[in-house]
Amino acid sequence: MYRIALIAAFLLPLWLFACNPGKVHTPEPPPPALVEAAAAGDVARVDTLLQTTSGVDVRDACAWTPLMKAALNGHVETARRLLAAGAAVEATDKGGYTPLMLAAQRGHTELVDLLLAHGANPNHREETEGITALIAAAREGHTRTVMTLIEAGADPHLQDHHGLDALAWARQQGHTLVVKQLTPGAVTPASPTSASRTGD
Question: Residue 83: which residues within 8 A CB-CB, separation 6 or more?
Fold first, then answer.
C-alpha cells in the first residue's frame, strides 16, 4: 500500500502532463490557433479555422492536437466538429496519451462515448507509466466513465508498469463504487446518482 501511495504522489503529474521539455529555458513556440480554439471550446472559431487551416491535426510543442485539447477540457461539440473534419482519434502526444485517455482522466463521460463511437481503442497504453483509459478513470473515481469503458471492452486486468491495475488504484484511492464495479463477478451499471469520494 505504501508503494502505491508513493507512486500516486509522485507519478500522477506525469500522467496528465507527459510533455516534459528537456531544456527548461528554451521558450516554446505559441500553439497553433486551432489548438488554442479547441482548448477554449470556441466552436465558432474552430469552424472558421477548419475552413482555412491546412490540417486538423496540427500540434503544439507537446505534440497535442486540437482533439486532445478538446477531450481534456470536456468540449464535446468542439470534439464533434474536429472528428467530422477528420481528426485522428488515435493520435498520441509525446508520452503516448490519446484523446480518450485525456477525457477519461477528467471523467468526461460524454466525450469518452463520442471518441469510442469513432473507433478509439479503450485498451491503449501510454508509454510513460503504462496506464490505460480505464486505469486513469478508476484512479480518479469516475464511476460513469469506468462503466462506459468496461462496456466498450476495456480490459480491467491490464496493469501499468508497476503491476497495478484499475482495481488496485481504485482501492488505494478509496473509490468504493469503482471497486465494486471492478470486482470480479460484481460489475453492475453505475447509478447516475451514486457518489464515491471523487465520483462523477
Answer: 67, 89, 114, 118
In the chain, residues under CATH classification 1.25.40.20 are 30-88, 91-200
| Assigned fold of 30-88 | 1.25.40
C-alpha cell at 156: 480491467
| Sign of the alpha-carbon dihedral angle for 50, 54, 55, 59 | negative
Q: How confident is the model over 152-163, as a mean pLDDT?
A: 96
CB count within 10 Å of CB 30 equals: 10
CATH of domain 91-200: 1.25.40.20
Where do the H-state alpha helices sit in 17-163?
A: 33-40, 43-52, 66-73, 76-84, 99-106, 109-117, 133-140, 143-151
Instruction: Report d(CA 185, CA 71) in Å as an integer.
Output: 31
Residue 1 has pLDDT above 60, yes or no: no
The predicted structure's pLDDT at residue 195? 37
pTM of the model: 0.82
**Res. 20 pLDDT band, cuts 50 70 90:** very low
d(CA 42, CA 36): 9
Which residues are CB-neighbours of 40 under 8 A, at least 6 positions away? 73, 75
